[in-house]
């Protein structure tokens, strides 16, 4: 019985993880290629590109406020299909947008569909993971997202450069369609709680927000601000430096995340978030700084190795941290806040870094973005000191 309760690689978990990969593959095929397309087709400014990326992310946040409520647990299947359908319509519809304002609108529609789907899928996944293996399990699920982040930009940039925007949107639409039969096969058991995973009391509090999750959400947002500079401007940075193949940055970064994630999840399960988050924060900061000075492809790749190691240590630890802080009924809130903090960071970072790039150039913009990781480490360090102080006071009472 105990072995069954601790089983991780079930049919349902595998199917949901594969769907997570396809969803993020679709996202990255377009989001990483769109800046170059907008620059060439519409002569869009860095600020305009940042606004389009930022408002897409904000629409995802709005969608998750709805999809992450505990009361939606019984309707997760319908919500998932609704979100996927909206995202598919918006993906295909991007081809027929011939003005920046139209692309802005269709990307906000896509953001709503993506926000719903990307909240429901990890909630389904976490409900299939034994509590004792939450860090490991969500690390593997998170890797499916990261794998989409790695190959998506390569595929998207290749299709755009060699076959045009129409072929790119068609391929991205097909990727989303592949999710429907897969999720249908695992849906009957996907919305139920995993054996051994249900713990704690039912949620009776706020259905959108949990104060226990504020700290990890803020840290995740700061991390995502640095990532927004990569997805929004690294292709343009490579063009400015006359470097071909900058899409390999995402591949190398994600390969490093692949290597680090399983270890980071196990470290979290055994020693908590401190052991993974602090060294990860330093590595992300160094990776961004190194990127800012890079003017050869090899230097881009080396910065991707450093950044990917740090990113792979931090993100699965933060997601598992947030899930373990709440009851089973609140996992939708935890996943909603986790992904909302990512999108809030992307939205804020895209606009802010777009303004900086327009004013000071991409290199200095990346160096300035590393300061957000310095703030990340400062906030986390102060929280550790405060927690230890409170524990000492409690013990002395």
Describe this protein's structure.
There is one protein chain. The chain has 397 residues and is mainly alpha-helical. Helix content is 80%, strand content 0%. It has 16 helices and no strands. Helix 10 (214-240) runs parallel beside helix 14 (331-360). The longest helix is centred in the middle third of the chain and has 30 residues, at 134-163. The chain is globular, with a radius of gyration of 20 Å. It starts with a helix and ends with a helix.
| Biggest sheet features | none
User: Residue share in helices?
Assistant: over 70%
Structural class: mainly alpha
What is the helix tally? 16
Proportion of residues in β-strands: under 5%
CA-to-CA gap between the ends?
A: 42 Å
- pLDDT averaged residue by residue: 83
- Low-confidence stretches are 189-205
Q: Could you spell the SSE succession in H and E letters?
A: HHHHHHHHHHHHHHHH
Count of DSSP E strands?
0
Overall form: globular
Radius of gyration: 20 Å
Secondary structure layout plus pairing:
Blueprint: H1 2-5, H2 11-31, H3 34-42, H4 46-67, H5 76-93, H6 100-126, H7 134-163, H8 165-177, H9 179-190, H10 214-240, H11 248-271, H12 274-292, H13 297-324, H14 331-360, H15 362-369, H16 371-396
What's this, in brief?
The chain is an all-alpha fold and 397 residues long.
């Amino acid at each position: 019985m105990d072995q069954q309760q601790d089983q991780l690689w079930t049919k349902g978990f595998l199917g949901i993880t594969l769907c997570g990969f396809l969803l993020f593959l679709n996202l990255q095929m377009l989001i990483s290629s769109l800046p170059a397309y907008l620059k060439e087709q519409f002569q869009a400014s860095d600020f305009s590109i940042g606004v389009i990326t930022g408002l897409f992310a904000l629409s995802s946040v709005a969608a998750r406020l709805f999809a992450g409520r505990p009361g939606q647990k019984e309707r997760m299947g319908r919500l998932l299909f609704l979100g996927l359908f909206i995202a598919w319509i918006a993906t295909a519809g991007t081809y027929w947008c011939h003005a920046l304002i139209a692309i802005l609108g269709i990307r906000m529609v896509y953001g709503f569909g993506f926000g719903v789907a990307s909240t429901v899928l990890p909630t389904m996944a976490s409900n299939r993971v034994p509590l004792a293996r939450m860090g490991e399990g969500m690390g593997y699920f998170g890797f499916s997202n990261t794998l989409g982040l790695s190959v998506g930009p390569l595929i998207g940039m290749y299709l755009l450069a060699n076959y045009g925007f129409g072929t790119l949107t068609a391929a991205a639409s097909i990727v989303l369609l592949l999710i429907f039969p897969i999720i249908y096969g695992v849906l009957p058991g996907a919305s139920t709680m995993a054996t051994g995973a249900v713990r704690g009391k039912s949620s009776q509090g706020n259905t959108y927000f949990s104060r226990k999750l504020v700290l990890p959400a803020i840290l995740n947002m700061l991390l995502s601000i640095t990532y927004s500079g990569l997805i929004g401007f690294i292709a343009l940075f490579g063009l400015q430096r006359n470097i071909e193949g900058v899409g390999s940055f995402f591949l190398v970064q994600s390969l490093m995340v692949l290597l680090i994630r399983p270890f980071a999840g196990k470290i979290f399960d055994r020693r908590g978030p401190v052991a993974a988050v602090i060294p990860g924060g330093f590595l992300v900061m160094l990776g961004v700084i190194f990127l800012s000075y890079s003017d050869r492809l090899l230097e881009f790749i080396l910065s991707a190795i450093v950044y990917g190691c740090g990113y792979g240590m931090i993100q699965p630890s933060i997601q598992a941290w947030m899930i373990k802080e709440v009851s089973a009924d609140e996992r939708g809130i935890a996943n909603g806040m986790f992904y909302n903090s990512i999108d809030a960071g992307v939205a804020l970072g895209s606009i802010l870094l777009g303004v900086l790039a327009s004013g000071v150039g991409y290199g200095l913009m990346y160096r300035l973005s590393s300061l957000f990781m310095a703030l990340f480490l400062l906030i986390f360090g102060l929280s550790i000191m405060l927690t230890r102080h409170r524990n000492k006071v409690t013990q002395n009472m």
